[in-house]
Amino acid sequence: MVFTFHIPATRMNRSLGPPGPKRKRPESSSQSDSLTEQERILYEVIRSKQDMGIWTRDMKRETNLQDSVVNKSLKVLVAKNLIKEVVNIKNKGKKFYMAAEFQPSKEITGGAWYAEGQLDTALISFLKDFSAKQIQKQRVLTLDVISDLIRRSGVLKVDLAEQQIKDILRALVLDDEIIEVLSTGTGEFASFPVGKVCYKCTSKGARGGEPKTGAFSSVPCGVCPRILLCTPEGVISPKTCVYYNKWLEF
Amino acid sequence: MVSQHGIKFAVHIITKHFGNLVAKVCECLLRRGALTLQNIVRYTELTPTQVKNSLLVLIQHNCVQAFILEEPGGFGDTLRLITQYVVLFDNILHRLRFSKFLALVSLHFDKPCLDLLEGLLQHGRLSLQQMFDRARETEGSNVTLSTVQENLHKLVTARYVERCPIPEPVLEPPSENDVAARKRAAKSKIIVEAETLEQRVVAASFPSDTLRFSVAVNPELNIDCATEHAGEKRKFDALESDIDGGATTEKIILWRANCEEFVRQLRNKACIENVRARLDDDAATVFSAMVEASGSEEKKIKVVNSAPLSVNAIYEEVIKSEKGRNMTFNHVRASLVQLSSQPRFVRVADETYSIDFKNIVELAQNDEVESVVLKRYGRTAYKIFRLLSKDGRLVETDKDLSTPLTQDRVMKISDSIFVEKKESANMLYKLWQDGYLLMERLVAGATQFLLWKVDKQKVWWHFLDEMFHGALNLSLRVAYEIDQRDEILKLREGASKEKRDRLVKVRMLMESSLMKLDDAIMLFHDF
């Protein structure tokens, strides 16, 4: 079922968010002074979007300028280093521009785990492996200890923010490799204060990373992508099912 | 309320066991709810005798229960009493589980008891005399009535066998409060687990708990209250009284297997195995001792947690078992700490411990659904599903709306699971299409946002329906394979050994898979 809500547009206005770290405004008053009227209008629109940037078609709509004028003005503005082209992670095909003084926001770049518009899978899998192994070795660990272990291992050139390590641990939780628990202060949690968030391995970790196969998923219907179309006398039916034939090959 | 494939599966079981006519009556009741005899005749277009006989079969096998509904009549204050029939869906499914029930009983009882129970399962309801006759047929003439009675008493004391319910309990019309509550529930479009008519009838059909398991041959108790009701009813409705069978009129006590107790035992077994898989053997030993110790206290299947137990009581029970004998008091304490830390199997309060059945069942349910999501849709879907099912609220594809202004806390589905945004968006859509996710569209100005959620109640319901579908398919395919085998045998006396061996293997694989799938169905439907 699909529900439709209407919420005030102002709440959704992304430009309300705190702007990205500002660079010092370029002291190029002479450059912006030399702009034509149309170039100035375009520049103001782009600059008003701050670190979110703006898509070329949106510029055309907002400025009411003709395509050719916009394209020409963009070239001039880029040449004068007033604006820059940025890759938007959500729409790599769309051309986005941003005033030169802003750093693209996380919405545009995709956040800390993206490098040049690509998900940095090598870094992620390394960190996941490293953290999982440490937790397996020491049974129970906290976020601080894991951060410390990563830092001290010296394998990374850059320092990771705490949030990034949290991201990694959350991904491991979703993989069902580790679980997040609160320390009880006794037994294996003896060295952690009561209520502290800890991470420990799941029993699945001991099984070699594969979750237990359920009863339904071990029969063809459980994994069948066409189960919704299957009927006893239909085109797809248990009697003629190819998945069954394969399953019952002895 | 039973889902579509649940109904189809139940009808399939009845067709297999009792043929098409009975199945037609059963399907009519499953689809339309409680009906009078006349209405069943009308809807099924069968003759009244056919319907009557089908109902008798279904009642004999505990798949249908008759009841009398009191309705205000047209003249003055007199109440109109209408006999209606309601189908007991759970009992139809239990027909698949008879082998499991027998296996449970074989652990603690000897062969004569097992035979007695088998007779009850096969015939639905039996009197002591009928059980005695059966025992003489199988074991010879040296069986005495008192030994059969003794065996019956053993099974009744263990609650595996019970007296049959009242043939036609009187059900009062729902009070105004009930009606109002139901209307409210319907308005809010929430599936509320209100007491269904089926449950109300079952509750009304049981005499008190003591009478239900009373083995006294005391003549006062022997007068089954059931017969009194039947007699009363006859005054009003001479025609339909034929339905409840001749046996009750002779004031003979009928006995049947108590499926509720069997399912409860199966639930305990499943919980113990779950603990063993997640923790270790020691924890499972302690846990099973807790199950034993609290077993006499609780009698229902769907309970949140067991009665609290002290460490001493648990230890006392642990050392009764062979495995527990080499455990020290400290061992048991350590296992209890393990059991009560997350994922939590046991609740602790004031130095007492109680089993958290609800949580264990939920964990097992999650495992079952996640396993299907992983194998059917792949790892990305598995992560998305776990993320949303843990979160339990609406999450936007890209951005968490509850914190639109603090970028540090922005949570994105694709970021949380580290996959490319396009891939996660495609997967979300696929899961939604197949009924595993709920989507809500949110329009803010010119932009549109999609919000996703795992609505456990709806998804679990859908999943159970798929499992019924899977069970039906397995059962149909088994029948198909057997047909094929018969044909091969007919065609050639000496059909190749290879082919015959294959069919034996196929049948074993499918039947054992069906039993395992039924365990999973119980996990969602009964526990």
UniProtKB/TrEMBL annotation, chain A:
Ranges where the record places region Disordered: 1-36
Keywords: DNA-directed RNA polymerase, Nucleus, Transcription
TM helices/strands, residue ranges: none
InterPro entries: RNA_pol_Rpc34 (IPR007832), RNA_pol_Rpc34-like (IPR016049), WH-like_DNA-bd_sf (IPR036388), WH_DNA-bd_sf (IPR036390)
Pfam families listed in its UniProt record: RNA_pol_Rpc34
Cellular compartments annotated: Nucleus
Gene Ontology BP term (one): transcription by RNA polymerase III
Primary role: DNA-dependent RNA polymerase catalyzes the transcription of DNA into RNA using the four ribonucleoside triphosphates as substrates. Specific peripheric component of RNA polymerase III which synthesizes small RNAs, such as 5S rRNA and tRNAs.
PANTHER family given in the database record: RNA POLYMERASE III DNA DIRECTED , 39KD SUBUNIT-RELATED (PTHR12780)
Similarity field: Belongs to the eukaryotic RPC34/RPC39 RNA polymerase subunit family.
Name of the protein in question: DNA-directed RNA polymerase III subunit RPC6
From TrEMBL, chain B:
Keyword flag Transcription: yes
Subcellular locations according to the entry: Nucleus
Keyword annotations: DNA-directed RNA polymerase, Nucleus, Transcription
GO biological process, one term: DNA-templated transcription
GO molecular function, one term: single-stranded DNA binding
Domain (RNA polymerase III subunit RPC82-related helix-turn-helix) ranges: 10-67
Domain RNA polymerase III Rpc82 C -terminal: 151-362
Job of this protein: DNA-dependent RNA polymerase catalyzes the transcription of DNA into RNA using the four ribonucleoside triphosphates as substrates. Specific core component of RNA polymerase III which synthesizes small RNAs, such as 5S rRNA and tRNAs.
Subunit structure: Component of the RNA polymerase III (Pol III) complex consisting of 17 subunits.
InterPro entries hit by this protein: RNA_pol_III_RPC82-rel_HTH, RNA_pol_III_Rpc82_C, RPC3, WH-like_DNA-bd_sf
Protein's name in the database: DNA-directed RNA polymerase III subunit RPC3
GO cellular component, one term: RNA polymerase III complex
PANTHER family the UniProt entry points to: DNA-DIRECTED RNA POLYMERASE III SUBUNIT RPC3, RNA POLYMERASE III DNA DIRECTED -RELATED
Higher taxonomy: Eukaryota, Viridiplantae, Streptophyta, Embryophyta, Tracheophyta
Pfam family, one: HTH_9
Highest rank taxon of the organism: Eukaryota
Family named by the database record: Belongs to the eukaryotic RPC3/POLR3C RNA polymerase subunit family.
Keyword Transcription set for record: yes
